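TA notes, week 10

Several of you asked for a full example with nothing omitted. So below is the full record: structure tokens for the whole chain, then the designed sequence directly under it. When grading your own attempts, check the secondary structure regions first.
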């Protein structure tokens, strides 16, 4: 009888876990900021219907191979995507069998886009569109492990603290939307932290000293988070928030993983317009 109960329990756990099993992503990226180039190995474990899987990849990159235990063949072609109004690379992978879970590894390399690099900084974030994605599942939450290798004269930060690090190698783990897995590499980061018993705000700035507007940003973010946690975040409050300042002039963007990239070279929340941008980016989570 006990054995039977145990088996029922196993069956229950297997089916319930099967329902919530997220896609799993493992990325190993080697960044060479001086050469403005990188190579990446992206391993995805996902459900594949009909023994087939389609992935989109930035058209600028060079695809060197697709492998996996059940990969029979793959094709790669450029196509025009109406939704993004851009040309993308479509990789169509066919498997030897129709089992539900499949694992594929995509190897690719490329140049770091001009808007995502400066002298001594390389940005690998959502806007850089640097990871392959399943069409229409770009914002599906996945479990990930991101390993970043850089020259030892560089440091790497991400939306959360590194799980492990040693000179030249950093490992980050967590769960976030597929397209938002990322990191920032720079010669040096300066850090600002503000902590209350309720939450902590971290700011990482690439290759420059923190200024009065940076301190004000952290202070204002604290006030905004405290307010949002009371108003719209009671059920799911922010406990930690990370700002990444790459030091390029592009845009600001909020990420699902309680983080935002402030890609402006001058950003001062003393200006009501910038303060509004800050509040907007923090609210992305909800
Ligand atoms: Zn936004």
């Amino acid at each position: 009888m006990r054995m039977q109960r145990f088996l029922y329990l196993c069956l229950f756990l297997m089916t319930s876990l099967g329902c919530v099993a997220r896609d799993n992503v493992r990325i190993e990226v080697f960044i060479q900021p001086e050469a403005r180039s990188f190579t990446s190995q992206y391993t995805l474990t996902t459900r594949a219907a009909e023994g087939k899987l389609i992935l989109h990849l930035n058209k600028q990159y060079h695809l060197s191979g697709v492998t996996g235990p059940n990969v029979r063949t793959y094709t790669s072609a450029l196509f025009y995507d109406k939704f993004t109004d851009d040309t993308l690379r479509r990789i169509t992978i066919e498997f030897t069998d129709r089992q539900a879970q499949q694992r594929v590894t995509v190897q690719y390399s490329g140049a770091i886009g001009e808007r995502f690099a400066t002298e001594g900084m390389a940005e690998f974030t959502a806007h850089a569109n640097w990871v392959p994605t399943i069409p229409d599942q770009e914002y599906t939450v996945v479990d990930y492990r991101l390993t970043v290798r850089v020259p030892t004269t560089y440091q790497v930060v991400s939306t959360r603290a590194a799980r492990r690090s040693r000179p030249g190698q950093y490992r980050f783990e967590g769960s976030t939307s597929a397209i938002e897995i990322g990191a920032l590499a720079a010669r040096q980061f300066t850090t600002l932290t503000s902590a209350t018993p309720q939450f902590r705000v971290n700011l990482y700035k690439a290759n420059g000293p923190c200024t009065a507007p940076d301190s004000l940003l952290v202070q204002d973010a604290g006030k905004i988070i405290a307010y949002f946690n009371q108003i719209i975040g009671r059920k799911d409050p922010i406990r930690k928030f990370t700002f990444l300042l790459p030091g390029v002039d592009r845009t600001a963007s909020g990420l699902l993983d309680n983080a935002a990239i402030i890609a402006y070279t001058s950003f001062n929340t003393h200006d009501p317009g910038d303060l509004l941008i800050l509040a907007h980016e923090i609210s992305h989570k909800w």
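The mean pLDDT is 92. Use that as a sanity check on your answer.
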